[in-house]
Amino acid sequence: MAFNMIRKKLRKLFQLDCSPQILAISSAVGVMIGFSPYVGFHTALAIGISFIFSLPMYPLLLGAYITNPFTMVFIYALCYKVGRWILRDDTPIDIDWTNTSLTELFEAARTILLPFFAGTHLIGLIFGVITYFVIYYIAVKYRQNT
């Protein structure tokens, strides 16, 4: 049942009245938005980019929703690990919750957020590029067969 729903959504994606290049760009930008660290703003970003750049909204939203309640923890954990690897950050996260000041919380947030932001942007860019080529190829093949 879930497979049929995904198939139906993908068919709708490839039936949009736009060129394969525009479809691929919209999907790739949507995926980059989906991997971005701006949780809670993915939909607004997708809609805004759709209006600003006159891109079809459907592929943007599909890509932005790659990060959903079922995938969010895994995606963001991977992005955090990649960010730590990129920044060569081996700093342990050590918070003493019994005696914590605001300064210590901000310092702990900095050690977490910097690798997280670096990882989400890099992984989003990588998967966005991959998405562009995959969607472009499928869209061209789909249109040749219809």
UniProtKB/TrEMBL annotation:
Keyword Endoplasmic reticulum assigned: no
Q: Does the keyword Membrane apply?
A: yes
Membrane-crossing residue ranges in chain numbering: 21-54, 60-79, 112-139
Pfam family name, one: DUF2062
Name all DUF2062 domain ranges: 5-144
Sorted keywords for this record are:
Membrane, Transmembrane, Transmembrane helix
What top-level branch of life does the organism fall under? Bacteria
Q: What is this protein's record name?
A: DUF2062 domain-containing protein
